[in-house]
Design a protein that fits this description.
277 residues; alpha/beta; eight-stranded mixed sheet; 18 strands; 36% helix; 24% strand; globular
């Protein structure tokens, strides 16, 4: 059996927050240079994130590459031209039900929704909204969920933000009331809610098939619980040094943390099969 070190990798899938960017939301020059080197070799570098498109594209532009992006942890995949390749979501009726439930029963939690490139909030001045806007540079709009969804449309993601103990309680309540949904904490104060069919690994499989590249020739990087299925799906995978121990146990390898160029350190360990473009 061929070991991971003998494989020539052909595609990279990389989480953003806590992985590609450091604690100051920056990417090191050396990491950017390495990604550009892979790009010139014809190796797709795919950014995979819970962020909306406007939170990913500026990072991709800064790196200086063109490639598909995976938004909302796999609920929306756009090609290198910004056109929709795949979209999955919570249908309108259920989305309104979720929105109503959270806002009625959990008044101290900020519940916002994402639909394509719209971030829908009750109050743009809410401290949690302001905080998230500073992290992602995405612009929220005030309104009701029902105003932004067509009758046959869907919401890509709900993001609930609040104090850790409240998010813990909401997590339990949501999983009990809506067991068919994908619900996870992306940090102690954030709860992400999506359609149950959404996963980063699903996006990885879709794009590998689109590129006609085997999963064995794919590599992934991640730092959090919502990355585990992606780390397990690819031929090799790196958990960041800043990842929880449980996440590290599911990765093939462990690299440095995001403040010490962990993605760069991982990429330097691998042999890539490409051609100059």
């Amino acid at each position: 059996m061929i070991g991971p070190e003998a494989v020539q990798y052909k595609i990279v899938f990389c989480d953003i927050d806590g992985t590609l960017i450091d604690s100051k939301n920056q990417i090191s020059k050396s990491t950017v240079q390495k990604i550009r080197e892979l790009y010139r070799m014809g190796i797709p570098f795919i950014m995979v994130s819970a962020r909306m498109p406007s939170g990913i594209l500026p990072i991709q532009d800064k790196v200086g590459i063109k490639a598909p992006i995976v938004c909302y942890s796999g609920a929306l995949i756009l090609n290198q031209y910004g056109n929709c390749l795949k979209t999955l979501g919570i249908e309108r009726k259920k989305a309104v039900l979720i929105d109503t439930f959270v806002k009625k029963e959990w008044k101290h939690i900020c519940c916002s929704a994402f639909c394509h490139n719209n971030w829908i909030v009750d109050n743009v001045d809410d401290k949690w909204v302001v905080q998230e806007q500073q992290i992602t540079s995405s612009a929220p709009v005030e309104g009701r969920v029902s105003d932004f969804i067509l009758p046959d449309g869907h919401i890509h993601k709900f993001l609930c933000m609040g104090e850790a103990e409240q998010i813990t309680a909401l997590n339990v309540a949501m999983k009990e009331k809506f067991p068919e949904l994908s619900i996870y904490r992306s940090k102690e104060t954030y709860l992400e809610i999506m359609d149950g069919t959404v996963s980063k690994s699903g996006a990885v499989r879709y794009l590998c098939m689109d590129y006609n590249i085997s999963l064995q020739a794919a590599v992934s990087f991640g730092d959090n619980f919502n990355d585990i299925d992606m780390l397990l799906a690819t031929g090799t995978s790196f958990a960041m040094g800043n990842a929880p121990e449980e996440v590290k146990r599911h990765a093939r390898r462990i690299t440095l943390d995001n403040d010490h160029e962990g993605v760069l350190a991982g990429l330097r360990q691998l042999d890539f099969a490409g051609k100059q473009i």
